[in-house]
Amino acid sequence: MSPSSPSTARILLDRFAAWHRLTPPERADVETALAGLHPGAEHDPERAAELLARVWWSFLVEPGDGVAGALIAEAGAVAALLAVLAALPTPDALPDMTPAASIRGTLPGVPTPDATRALARWRPRFGDRGLVGALRSAASLHLRVLLPGDDAWPRRVADLGEHGPVCLWTLGRAELLDRPRVGALVGSRAATPYGLQVTADIAEAWCRQGFTVLSGGAYGVDRQAHRTALAVGGDTVAVLAGGLDRLYPAGNEPLLREIAERGCLVAEQPPGTAPTRWRFLQRNRLIASLAAVVVVTEAGHRSGALNTARHAAQLGRPIGAVPGSVVSGSSAGANRIIRDGIAQLVATGDEALGMLALQPELEPSPVAGLRAELVRLHDALHPRQPAPTAALAARAGLAETTVSAGLGELELLGLAVRTGDGRWRRG
Amino acid sequence: MSPSSPSTARILLDRFAAWHRLTPPERADVETALAGLHPGAEHDPERAAELLARVWWSFLVEPGDGVAGALIAEAGAVAALLAVLAALPTPDALPDMTPAASIRGTLPGVPTPDATRALARWRPRFGDRGLVGALRSAASLHLRVLLPGDDAWPRRVADLGEHGPVCLWTLGRAELLDRPRVGALVGSRAATPYGLQVTADIAEAWCRQGFTVLSGGAYGVDRQAHRTALAVGGDTVAVLAGGLDRLYPAGNEPLLREIAERGCLVAEQPPGTAPTRWRFLQRNRLIASLAAVVVVTEAGHRSGALNTARHAAQLGRPIGAVPGSVVSGSSAGANRIIRDGIAQLVATGDEALGMLALQPELEPSPVAGLRAELVRLHDALHPRQPAPTAALAARAGLAETTVSAGLGELELLGLAVRTGDGRWRRG
């Protein structure tokens, strides 16, 4: 039986109903709720099965669960879930069984120890009746679920590989997520007036250029980024660490409601999920993957924004940071990632805008095939800010004579342009 | 006749006396003054000739005169000066001649147009009687002249090539100049309390580690650097843009006197020379060349400290800069050179100390012969601050898998060390 057969959705719903001991009215409620979560699935049985499978998965796993991700990538969300269900005893057998005895199987293609640990990790959430209430709550709140393959699905999260989200719970304009220009502005919750000012400056500059301003909906820098975007009529997205039925932190509830109305709220976890430390860290990875560029506007030594920057570094995202006083702790983290070469120093909104030019090219690189020193020299050239030969030599780590000769070659190839005052920029 | 013949010094002194129309008592004064400028030359006729030649040259040329530098490098200071004297008419013929007619010759090895321009440039200073007074003033102030080859001659100025100083006028402990640990601290004259604080922090940290703190004797950052060094009992050198007979700026006179007593004052230009804009710029090049490392603690967009940083970049010196608020102009220049990759971000005195590790190695490089990606990886490792694999990958621009494998190779070669927490530093 192919997973796309019309009966797959029904089979999965039957299993769901059995595991959650749904009464017929509850089952009808769940079906209605699911239809509301993803109206496109209503008349597409394959999509309906995919929706239920991924929603169910999102209740079962913590964000970033690599075994689930690998299994889903290999078999598809529906078949992967059926394999998991097959690896567990029937729901009726459960109440009297110890957790260890309640697992009887392995998973296709997953090494047995990993499968055993994964099943043990997911098992406690199977049949949780809270899920029924959460689905009803999602329906009443008009949440939507984005699935891979949906038009609005943000393709950038594919960079997370098997640690990517199984689906995204959204409220508002989900179409903001897959734009080329999505910039994350992150930083300390305890932002100083300085941090708030530079955050507002960059958020405003980004909005003027049609960027979606992405942040975490927290106090301080996050809040300032969202508020500024709303104030200037720009687009903003808040990625939350818990379910969208609880707008956390409470003090930001009015702001988050406004984002839901005019921008978009996103969560990886379903309704009913409390924000935990782990989920905040995973939320940071999601912010990094959703963004085309990440800027840390103010961050102390232990700020969570540095965690976002590290995730962004792992994903190859261009990262900027705004420097600040070295004698106050509020900028210590931002200064550190600049010093360590993880982030580029960003002083103005326009510089933050310019960072998108650093994004990995989707087209074949123009420098493919050039010898190493020309590639390094090309790297050192900025698309808009021309630099003198000496600075390019310092940046590229090449002798100035090499740089002068190399610039001539790059100029012939159309990859370097000399400005009137004898400086050079990228061609 | 070899330039080392005992009569060379006398021949040169005869020419000097003729050009400056010295009376016999004046000639005796000049001889006494010269002996006091470099006591080591008293019983060494060759050294005495070298001394007079370079002192005379330092009166004739502006700092950085490349024709003089090339000629001296080629022929030696004495023969070069004799060649210039031979290219001019006799002093007796001068008073009635126009400047153009007062040049009749060329210079050995110098293209004729360059020679003509150079002679025309130097000619106006030949026979200037003010020089006699300046030498008397130098003697009464107990100035000393350092010549290339002297024990205390700072070998780092050789990096200036033909644009290097012909000699150095000093007051105080000239032996501070040729130490391995000479750090320049430079910045705005109009320093803010922030700039003053970070300057003091770094100066103190450097002094604790036996650094000589080098600066320009100006207000603001310079003054703070010198004062802090003196306050903590450290060594400090001020490089002035004019002659050491006039301690400029006047408001720093007490400080500069104290530096002369406990540290060292240095000038490239002889007594009687006023500080001019050009000489300030050339002074910056001298600071950059004298320093093993240069740190800009606070600089606005147009600060002269950026000129020093550019000179340092051309000389391949490690350059640091202290970041600051992006919303005040006082740190705009420092932030810019960090952003442009000219300077490394420095947040603490210890980080500024660590920069010496970036100096070009005098010994054969341990990475010689390694393939490019290992060299890049080794470059990315810091000698004292361990970093995680991801950060190293970002720094080196290599895939993390490549970095992991490469670290293993470098570890086997003793070039990388893994710390307890799984991070890596240079071996």
UniProtKB/TrEMBL annotation, chains A, B:
GO biological process: DNA-mediated transformation
One Pfam family matching this protein: DNA_processg_A
Record domain Smf/DprA SLOG: where: 145-353
Family statement: Belongs to the DprA/Smf family.
Protein name (database record): DNA-protecting protein DprA
Gene coding for it: dprA
